Amino acid sequence: MAVKSVSIRIEEEMLEKLGYVADYEGRSVNSQVLVLIRESIKRFEAEHGAIEGSISPDVNVKPPRKS
Length: 67
Hints:
- The protein is mainly α.
- The chain is built from 2 helices and no strands.
- 0% of the residues are buried.
């Protein structure tokens, strides 16, 4: 499975708040964003039906650690 990178523009204050929430949850900002994306996909699919694809939003897809 290929892991892709995405770059986003975000207000500094919003990024700081996201960092605060992520730290509170014991996650990195990147991991917190993945959690939010998964939750959004689950909500969408619950309302509109499954989106075609082999990866379920319940799967914790994380890139491998660099050695």
